[in-house]
Amino acid sequence: MTTFKSLFGPLALAVACGEELRDRRGANSVVMGCAGMAQYRDRLQAAIGIPVVEPTQAAAAMAMGRVKLGW
């Protein structure tokens, strides 16, 4: 049985939104707003062809960089 959720899952909806932002709003990057969507970042970026930032991953990378630099 096909359901609405299977037709329009989280990644499909994110891709549609990302394409809208890129094509109609001129976005050259997308910042995700929910850590629960982190698993889709790579696939979303590949699908829409512009950088996608997931804030939790970005914050963790910044923290690790500061530790390595001794800040």
Structural account:
The chain has 71 residues and is mainly alpha-helical. It has one domain (4-69). 61% of the residues lie in helices and 6% in strands. The chain has helices at 4-7, 10-25, 41-48, 55-69; strands at 30-31, 52-53. Helix 2 crosses helix 3.
Please state the overall shape, judged from the principal axes of the Cα atoms: elongated
Strands ordered across the widest β-sheet? 1-2
What is the mean pLDDT? Answer: 89
Query: In angstroms, what is the radius of gyration?
Result: 15 Å
Question: Main β-sheet, in a few words?
Answer: 2 strands, parallel
In whole angstroms, how far apart are the ends? 55 Å
Compute the number of helices.
4
Work out the count of structural domains: 1
Strand pairing plus helix content: what structural class? mainly alpha
Number-wise, the strands total 2
Low-pLDDT segments, ≥5 res: none
Order of helices and strands: HHEHEH
User: Proportion of β residues?
Assistant: 5-15%
Name the helicity range. 55-70%
